[in-house]
Design a protein that fits this description.
Elements lengths: L13 E2 L11 E10 L18 E8 L5 E3 L1 E2 L2 H4 L12 H18 L6 E5 L5 H8 L3 E5 L5 H6 L4 E2 L5 H11 L2 E7 L8 H11 E12 L1 H6 L12 E2 L2 H10 L3 E8 L5 E7 L7 H12 L6 H26 L3 E4 L3 H10 L9 E3 L17 E3 H5 L5 E4 L5 H10 L5 E4 L5 E2 L1
Parallel strand pairs: 6-7, 6-9, 7-8, 9-10, 14-15, 14-17, 15-16, 17-18
Antiparallel strand pairs: 1-5, 2-3, 3-4, 4-11, 10-13, 12-13, 18-19
Length: 419
């Protein structure tokens, strides 16, 4: 493709025929998951009698730049509506993880009281509270009503979708940022290149952009098809991610893996002032060895997903014959499992969320599994719990054993199994 100029997409919406990263018309369809409703479009009881909108959900790979992506972009105002129910603070592992991240960023970048840290997609402000604890000025940008919770908790937050106009407004009112974080949101934005221009506007001359997203290698090797949903427009490996940032004037000077969300990639980028660290070359070599560059890892993933689905169905059919099944957790990723495998209330009677979750009293999209409070559900003594929040299973399964649950746990991924 050398010498060929391809227009880069400004905003993606609806059915996509060109790569979101490089603009080439070279999308290879890897896995068709069917039509799904948006994963966080939970239903109130009265809505169960109304029509429900579903959109194509297909996992693809650009054969030109290697970027993994879906090929249908739902309007972001449909996905990230004001009553969006996800709260970062509900997950202890994330609270701890963000505490470590903000401490590292503060020390590594030498941040102090005169510096400004901005978090994009800041949710309830949990990450920014880590910077506040180190005496750094903070500002969040959050489009949903969760911003109200952050503000009430003392985290200044702009309640808006991040854009070039919002960036100009922030600079005028607060000055430039020394660090901008974007954790699990860089894959969500449909205005990728305008957003990166806005990040450039916000950053001071020596500022650093820290991004953390699901890592494609973990997704493929651990058969994490449940992380494929409409909020995730792209799935990053290091090579295509570096290319996207370079097109926007940024240089990645460090990259690392993180265990959050079943496996994430964190990159540190600036405008070229810092020398690239050794972890970049190591990660690029690993990705090539594991088949990300030549596409072989994607073909293995497709076959593994189909086999995983069959195995999970076999386990759950047998478990249902022997008693009742409740789900454990209602994360966005649960929607993909329930809809792709075809699990409704006839199999999974209800799914459990911790007291305080905004999801309690609603129903999962598409499959209409009721979401109930955890303690009340456990009091009914189900024989089996399907761990839909399997990516934090190491935290929650031992706690339930300590509280006296003696039934079976079914872990759906990466290998369906019974505990």
């Amino acid at each position: 493709m050398s010498g060929q100029t391809v227009p880069l997409p400004e905003v993606v919406r609806g059915a996509l025929t060109h790569c979101q990263g490089c603009g080439h018309e070279t999308l290879e369809r890897i896995l068709d998951l069917g039509h799904h409703p948006p994963c966080d479009s939970l239903l109130m009881p009265a809505q169960l009698d109304e029509p429900e909108v579903a959109y194509p959900l297909r996992f693809c790979r650009c054969t030109s730049c290697g970027l993994a992506q879906i090929d249908y972009a739902v309007d972001p105002e449909i996905l990230f509506f004001r009553e969006y129910p996800y709260r970062t603070a509900m997950t202890r592992l994330l609270r701890d993880h963000f505490g470590v991240l903000t401490t590292e960023a503060t020390q590594r970048l030498g941040l102090g009281a005169n510096d400004l840290a901005i978090d994009l997609g800041s949710n309830d402000g949990t990450l920014l509270q880590g910077f506040q604890a180190h005496g750094v000025r903070v500002l969040g940008v959050e489009p949903t009503g969760i911003a109200d919770i952050a503000i009430a908790n003392g985290v200044p937050t702009v309640n808006a979708f991040f854009s070039e106009e919002v960036a100009d407004q922030i600079v005028a009112e607060h000055g430039h940022a020394s660090v901008i974080t974007g954790t699990n949101m860089f894959a969500h934005v449909n205005n990728l290149y305008p957003m990166l221009r806005a990040v450039s506007t916000l950053l001071g001359p020596d500022g650093v952009f820290v991004s953390e997203s699901h890592y494609l290698l973990d997704l493929l090797e651990d058969v994490q098809y449940d992380t494929i949903y409409h909020e995730h427009l792209r799935f990053y490996a290091l090579r295509p991610l570096m290319a996207i940032l370079e097109r926007s004037g940024f240089s990645v000077f460090d990259a690392e893996r993180s265990p959050t969300h079943g496996g994430s990639i964190r990159i540190w980028a600036d405008r070229g002032q810092r020398e690239p660290g050794p972890r970049i070359a190591e990660m690029l070599q690993l990705e090539a060895e594991r088949g990300l560059d030549d596409g072989s890892a994607f073909l293995r993933f497709r076959e593994n997903v189909l086999e995983s689905k069959r195995q999970l169905l076999e386990i759950l059919v047998e478990a249902r014959r022997n008693g009742r099944i409740l789900g454990l957790g209602a994360p966005g990723r649960a929607s993909t499992i329930l809809n792709f495998v075809g699990l409704g209330p006839d199999v999974v009677e209800a799914t459990l969320e911790l007291d305080g979750s905004l999801k309690i009293g609603q129903y999962t999209p598409g499959t209409h599994v009721p979401i109930i409070e955890e303690q009340a559900g456990l009091a009914t003594n189900p024989e089996t719990l399907l761990v839909l929040s399997w990516h934090i299973g190491e935290e929650i399964v031992p706690k339930l054993r300590e509280r006296g649950f003696k039934g079976k746990f079914v872990i759906p991924l990466p290998q369906p199994r019974v505990l």
